[in-house]
C-alpha cells in the first residue's frame, strides 16, 4: 500500500501547495491596513475595487460659450450700432402750403426724429392735424400755413370753432 503522505515529501510539491494556499488566503479579508506610511505612492483602490469611494453623478458639462450664447435677434436689434433710421416721409416734403395732406398720413421725419400726427378731434368725426405750430389740415384736405402761431391766426381759429361745434 502506498503512503498517503509520500507526495508531500517532495520539496516542489510542498512549495506549490504552500503558494496555492497563500494565494487563496490573500484574496480574502481586509487589505485596508496593508498600505504603509513608507509606501505613500501605492494605491489601495487599484488593488481592491471596493475601496474606491462612492461619488454622486457629476453634472453634465456646461455648453461652451459659443454654443449657449448665440446672439438673439432682439439683442442685435437693440444694439446702438444697429439702430434703424426713423421711417416716414420728410416733414418738409409733406407740410407744404396748398398741398393735400395724405388720407393715410401717420407722421413724418424732421431732424432725424419721427414726428407723430398732432391731431385734434372734431365733433363731425374729422380730425384737424397740426404741425410745428404753423401748419394745419384735415386728412385728405388742403394744408394751410400761417406766419404766426396757430392760435393767433384768425382762419385757424374759425376752423377750430367749426370743428368743435
How are the strands of the biggest sheet laid out side by side? Answer: 3-4-5-6
Q: What's the β-strand tally? A: 6
Structural class, by secondary structure, is alpha+beta
Secondary structure tally, helices: 6
Radius of gyration: 49 Å
Low-confidence runs of at least 5 consecutive residues: 14-53, 64-68, 70-79
Q: Strand percentage, roughly? A: 5-15%
Biggest sheet character: 4 strands, antiparallel
Q: Give the fraction of residues assigned to helices.
A: 25-40%
Compute the separation of the termini in Å. 145 Å
Whole-number mean pLDDT = 72
Envelope shape = globular
Query: Helix-strand pattern, N to C?
Result: HHHHHEEEEEEH
Overview of the molecule:
- There is one protein chain.
- The protein has 165 residues and is of the alpha+beta class.
- Helices cover 27% and strands 13% of the residues.
- The termini are far apart.
- The strands form two sheets. The chain has a four-stranded antiparallel beta sheet with strand order 3-4-5-6, covered by helices on one side. A two-stranded antiparallel ribbon has the order 1-2.
- Strand 1 and strand 2 form a beta hairpin.
Amino acid at each position: 500500500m502506498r503512503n498517503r503522505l509520500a507526495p508531500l515529501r517532495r520539496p516542489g510539491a510542498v512549495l506549490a501547495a504552500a503558494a496555492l494556499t497563500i494565494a487563496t488566503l490573500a484574496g480574502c479579508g481586509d487589505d485596508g491596513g496593508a498600505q504603509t506610511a513608507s509606501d505613500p505612492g501605492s494605491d489601495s483602490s487599484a488593488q481592491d475595487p471596493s475601496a474606491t469611494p462612492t461619488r454622486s453623478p457629476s453634472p453634465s458639462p456646461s455648453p461652451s460659450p459659443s454654443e449657449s450664447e448665440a446672439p438673439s435677434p432682439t439683442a442685435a436689434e437693440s444694439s446702438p450700432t444697429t439702430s434703424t433710421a426713423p421711417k416716414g416721409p420728410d416733414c418738409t416734403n409733406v407740410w407744404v402750403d396748398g398741398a393735400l395732406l395724405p388720407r393715410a398720413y401717420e407722421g413724418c421725419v424732421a431732424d432725424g426724429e419721427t414726428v407723430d400726427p398732432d391731431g385734434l378731434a372734431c365733433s363731425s368725426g374729422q380730425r384737424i392735424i397740426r404741425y410745428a405750430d404753423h401748419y394745419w389740415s384735415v386728412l385728405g384736405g388742403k394744408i394751410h400755413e400761417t406766419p404766426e402761431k396757430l392760435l393767433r391766426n384768425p382762419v385757424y381759429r374759425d376752423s377750430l370753432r367749426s370743428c368743435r361745434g
